[in-house]
Amino acid sequence: MIAETVCSAVSAAGLGIAVVTAYRRRFLAAARIAAYSLVPLGLVMAGVVDWLADTAFSPTAWAGFGVLGLSWVLFATTRTVERRRGGTRKERKAARPEAVAPGASAPSLGQGARPAARPAPASRGGDDFSDIEAILKKHGI
Predict the structure, then answer these.
(1) HEC-encoded secondary structure of 42-68
(2) Sign for the pseudo-dihedral over CA of 87, 88, 89, 91
């Protein structure tokens, strides 16, 4: 009973603020304030406030929320363990092979010989820094 009265008073106060805002020719803001102020009244009329009050003071409802929380924790834990192990989900899609580029050979399993490092290209003298010099000259440096 008190919750309904409080929600009605909040709605009435919000509608009063919306009227004052509309009087100041801020119609968009007034419409938004009116919309927010009608929410508590709508919740009272829909019976949500009664349901929440009954739920808040019901030990059975709190036990139900506890069971739901426990089931969520168990579900999340099993998913985490499953992902760390790499099991199920059809045994991780039958132990997927490594992704390889279409034109590449299959990945080697052993310690293969590393290819020799490519020799550095011969320097072309001043051509390497010609672009940098042009930028510096452009900025007067």
Answers:
(1) HHHHHCHHHHHHHHHCCHHHHHHHHHH
(2) positive
CB 43 within 8 A of CB 7: yes
**Could you report the per-residue pLDDT of 60-117, keeping only the tens digit for each?**
888 888 888 889 988 888 888 888 876 666 666 666 666 555 665 655 565 655 555 5
Structure tokens at 86: 């790499």
Whether the CA torsion 51, 55, 57, 60 is positive or negative: it is positive
- What CA–CA distances, in Å, run from 92 to 76, 96, 121? 18, 7, 46
Q: Per-residue DSSP letters for 65-128?
A: HHHHHHHHHHHHHHHHHHHHHT--HHHHHHHPPPP--TTSPPPPSS-PPPPPPPPPPPP-GGGG
CA 8/CA 42 separation, integer angstroms: 9
Cα separation of 9 and 108, whole Å?
75
Structure tokens that stand for 126 in this block: 């001043």
